[in-house]
Design goal:
The protein is of the alpha/beta class. The protein is built from 14 helices and 16 strands. The protein has helices at residues 16-27, 50-62, 68-85, 92-104, 108-127, 148-159, 187-197, 231-239, 250-255, 316-326, 347-350, 354-365, 392-402, 428-441, and strands spanning 4-8, 32-37, 139-140, 165-166, 171-174, 179-181, 202-207, 228-230, 260-264, 273-276, 293-306, 331-333, 340-346, 369-382, 409-412, 418-424. Strands 4-2-1-7-9-10-8 form a seven-stranded mixed β-sheet, sandwiched between helices. A hairpin with an 8-residue loop joins strand 9 and strand 10. The structure holds aspartic acid (ASP).
């Protein structure tokens, strides 16, 4: 039978009211049989996540300080959820076991993992679903890298014959038996792995936004939600700072051809964003903007190099890039002219070695002119439909020209999936707004 894996983030399970919404969502679709919960997150903006409180308890325990007061706050939150939901269960034994473990062996990953573990216990009880401990199915090697094949096998074995299951997110166990977590936000990864293992029809990732937005809402007022985005487009936008999903959550579902649907627990009526493979049938899509999204990041520098007859000097680029390589700096973009080349790099990587880099480039290629320009922002205009649409770049630059924004660098990937533009950092918000207007507002 086709099934859905549903992952709920911390804000979706922050209190009893949120638990009720989650249960309604699950019960409204009989295919939602595998559930991956996060730990209780923030209920209001300056609330503290359970995961952070657990890290704190572990730190106190590690320095031999009494952590019972902080631990009591954690217990109160879980007990509050249990009593508000009116379920008949006690986590007292679990609390005692966790406190005892923290006293004798305060391990960070173990401490943090208990947030999801306890929330999973409550959710399983509330839904009447089976509880499957992630420690039994998510397997890491001794260095902490996920063993995907072993994990998939273990998940299949464990879930085989179970009608449904709640599997806590964020953690697993090493082959040596230690609890190990993914990096922060890692319940997304657990959900993706479970979806791969059970060959889910879809991986639903429920959070507190109705999907990916075309642009940052702090810059563009009320931006549209992206209806459908491909994994490749998502990579481009996420790299430029747009984030809703853990980076490592992509591979397990992408490799299995399973789409991800980002949904909003507080607005289940919204369709959210569908993240699909490249071979998706776009003709079925209803929304047809030329671009999918716009994202930008500050904090770049360009190294500008000029030398007469540069183009005929074999190995020129290689020598320059070798200098960056020797200093451990990776480059982002490298547009070039006949006698000029400019390399965009992350300023924070360049800063500690900037004088050495300049000296080494001089030594390597003896340029006529060499300078570093700081304060550069990079903006990515991403869209799979750009490939077959003429005039896209012209429209981007018309938008920039009308706003009197100087374009410092242009780069278009060979896949024609994105256009990258370098502008001054202070021009970035206006550039994003103008491009949004040009492609989204004017195409409505
Ligand atoms: N609870 C963990 C965190 O706060 C993992 C997650 O929510 O995905 O990072």
């Amino acid at each position: 039978m086709a099934n859905k894996v549903v992952k709920f983030g911390g804000s979706s399970l922050a209190d009893a009211n949120q638990f009720r919404k989650v249960a309604d969502i699950i019960k409204s679709d009989s295919k939602r049989i595998y559930v991956v919960p996060s730990a209780p997150g923030k209920r209001f903006s300056d609330d503290i996540k359970i995961t952070d409180m657990l890290y704190k308890c572990c730190e106190l325990a590690g320095s031999g300080v009494d952590f019972s007061e902080d631990f009591q706050i954690i217990k109160d939150r879980y007990n509050g959820i249990i009593s508000d939901l009116g379920i008949d269960m006690s986590l007292e034994d679990e609390f005692n076991a966790i406190a005892a473990e923290l006293k004798s062996r305060p391990a960070k990953d173990f401490a943090a993992s208990r947030g999801e573990y306890l929330n999973g216990k409550i959710l399983a009880k509330y839904l009447g679903y089976n509880f499957v401990d992630a420690a039994d199915v998510i397997i890491f090697d001794t260095k902490g890298s996920l063993l995907l094949e072993d994990t998939v096998k273990a998940v299949r074995e464990k879930l085989d014959g179970l009608e449904n299951a709640v599997i806590p997110g964020f953690y697993g166990k090493t082959t040596e038996g230690c609890i190990k977590t993914f990096s922060r936000g890692g319940s997304d990864v657990t959900g993706s792995i479970i979806a791969n293992a059970v060959r889910a029809e879809i991986y639903e990732n429920w959070t507190d936004v109705s999907g990916f937005l075309v642009a940052d809402p702090r810059i563009v007022e009320n931006p549209d939600v992206i209806e459908t985005i491909t994994y490749r487009e998502l990579r481009e936008l996420a790299y430029m700072g747009a984030s809703v999903l853990h980076e490592d959550a992509i591979f397990p579902v992408r490799s299995a051809g399973i789409p991800i649907n980002i949904r909003n627990t507080n607005r289940p009526q919204d369709a959210g964003t569908m993240i699909v493979a490249n071979d998706y049938d776009f003709s079925k899509e209803s929304l047809c903007h030329t671009i999918t999204g716009i994202a930008g990041r500050k904090g770049f520098s360009t190294i500008n190099i000029e030398k007469a007859m540069m183009n005929s000097e074999t190995g020129f680029g290689m020598k320059v890039l070798k200098v960056l390589f020797d200093h451990g700096i990776s480059f982002e973009h490298m547009p070039s002219g006949i006698d000029t080349m400019s390399i965009t790099v992350d300023s924070s990587k360049l800063d500690p070695v900037r004088e050495e880099v300049l000296a080494d480039i001089r030594k390597a290629v003896n340029p006529d002119h060499l300078e570093i320009e700081d304060g550069i922002a990079i903006l990515a205009v991403v869209g799979r439909r750009m490939k077959n649409t003429r005039g896209t770049v012209a429209r981007i630059f018309a938008a920039m020209a009308h706003a009197r924004i100087n374009v410092k660098m242009i780069d278009q990937g060979s896949s024609e999936l994105n256009v990258i533009i370098g502008v001054s950092e202070h021009d970035l918000p206006e550039a994003i707004r103008r491009i949004y207007d040009m492609f989204i507002n004017s195409e409505k």
